[in-house]
Write a sequence for this structure.
């Protein structure tokens, strides 16, 4: 069993396996829309490798970070 | 070869200046041809920040920028949404007491010309822009300044010109000929008047035009709505005038309607290539972060460069060339071509059609004696 850690997503606590990317953790939790486009459409990861910019979220108050390029850390606060 | 069509006016260059001139010429009832080798509005126009500002480096600059700004304000109701015109105002930031006095003097200079301006003390400035670093002395607010998206503004003028019968021709102007010009592919364009609006390359068609390219870097962030409300410019450069030859950076931020923040600025003479120079970009960003520390945690979407068409006395060339007759210049606007596109078109067309101009145009005549002035950042 991989080590587990806890993150908070929009105030809800999630347990995820260590090493999970934030994008994967959100997808596993059923969250596919990670941001809104300028016209209000939900957007989520397309490429999963940092190029498409569609999975941008706010982590610990820092906005516009790519969920697919970050690994989950204990206590991470995510807003999406 | 088919008989060349005769135009009243042929304009070389479809940047914002050429497009604005084309719109004004077409509106004056002139049969107008606009000639562009690349994408209309795709050169210096697309590379710039897009301020609509009053600038008071010299009385002539103040007169032209303010007049042009008022013309933009009259156009505002007609500008499509894509132009993203927003009257956000400029805050001229005073870092210390000395600069606060400079800001107060600047306010008086604005007032003397009837240009609205007001002083914000340290507390009022912090309330207006909470993400600025603490400890600034205050600012002068020029509430009528604004920003827009320059390529879309150029397209607005182009569409306007075309709606009044102007045509756009893809081609590169090679040289001026009697009553017209010749394109590189050999095409001859017959025109009663020729307007050269090719910016940094104007001297290729108008030998002797004292215009030198001046490189600048810009960077735009991802969207951070609500972080910035006004255009911000540092006053500091007024005190530390830079020599014309020296590379310099100055703090300049713009809020865009998208929530993005446009970060400038740098100035370099003699830079031969358009590539982004990491050292220059780093200096520029360092300066920006000194004023607004939160920028350091923001994501950048793109950094790029452009070349301003700079003249020795910081004023554009608007009017007839000394020789040959029927050839006009509308070029050399350095970093103010977006603002002064409206005024340039109005002053040039007034001269070309023999109408009265709203402000004196003599300070911008290409035949004036130019002397280099000390350069700000």
């Amino acid at each position: 069993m991989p080590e587990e850690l806890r993150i908070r997503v929009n105030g809800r606590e999630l347990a995820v396996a260590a090493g999970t990317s934030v994008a994967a953790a959100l997808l596993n939790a059923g969250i596919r829309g990670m941001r809104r486009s300028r016209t209000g459409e939900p957007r989520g990861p397309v490429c999963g490798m940092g190029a498409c910019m569609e999975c941008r979220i706010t982590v610990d108050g820092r906005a516009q970070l790519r969920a697919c390029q970050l690994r989950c850390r204990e206590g991470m606060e995510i807003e999406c | 070869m088919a008989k060349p069509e005769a135009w009243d006016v042929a304009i070389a260059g479809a940047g914002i200046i050429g497009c604005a001139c084309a719109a004004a010429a077409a509106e004056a009832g002139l049969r107008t041809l606009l000639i562009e080798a690349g994408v209309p509005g795709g050169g210096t126009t697309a590379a710039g920040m897009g301020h609509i500002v009053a600038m008071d480096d010299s009385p002539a600059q103040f007169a032209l920028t303010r007049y042009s700004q008022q013309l933009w304000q009259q156009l505002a109701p007609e500008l499509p949404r894509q132009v993203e015109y927003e009257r956000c105002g400029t805050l001229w930031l005073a870092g210390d007491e000395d600069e606060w006095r400079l800001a107060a003097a600047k306010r008086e200079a604005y007032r003397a010309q009837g240009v609205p301006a007001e002083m914000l003390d340290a507390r009022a400035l912090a309330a207006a822009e909470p993400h600025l670093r603490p400890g600034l002395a205050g600012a002068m607010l020029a509430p009528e300044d604004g920003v827009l998206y320059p390529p879309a503004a150029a397209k607005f003028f182009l569409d306007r010109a075309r709606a009044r019968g102007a045509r756009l021709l893809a081609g590169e102007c090679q040289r001026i000929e009697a009553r017209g010009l010749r394109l590189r592919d050999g095409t001859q364009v017959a025109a009663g008047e020729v307007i050269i609006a090719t910016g940094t390359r104007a001297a290729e068609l108008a030998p002797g035009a004292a215009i030198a390219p001046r490189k600048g870097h810009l960077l735009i962030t991802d969207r951070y709505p609500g972080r910035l409300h006004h255009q911000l410019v540092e006053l500091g450069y007024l005190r530390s005038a830079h020599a014309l030859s020296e590379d310099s950076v100055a703090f300049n931020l713009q809020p865009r309607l998208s929530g993005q923040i446009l970060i400038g600025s740098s100035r370099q003479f003699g830079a031969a290539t358009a590539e982004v120079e990491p050292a220059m970009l780093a200096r520029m960003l360092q300066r920006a972060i000194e004023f607004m520390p939160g920028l350091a945690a923001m994501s950048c979407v793109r950094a790029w460069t452009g070349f301003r068409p700079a003249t020795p006395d910081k004023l554009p060339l608007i009017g007839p060339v000394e020789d040959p007759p029927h050839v006009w210049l509308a070029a050399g606007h350095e970093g103010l071509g977006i603002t002064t596109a409206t005024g340039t078109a109005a002053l040039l067309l007034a001269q070309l059609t023999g109408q009265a101009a709203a402000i004196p145009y003599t300070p911008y005549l290409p035949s004036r004696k130019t002397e280099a002035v000390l350069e700000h950042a």
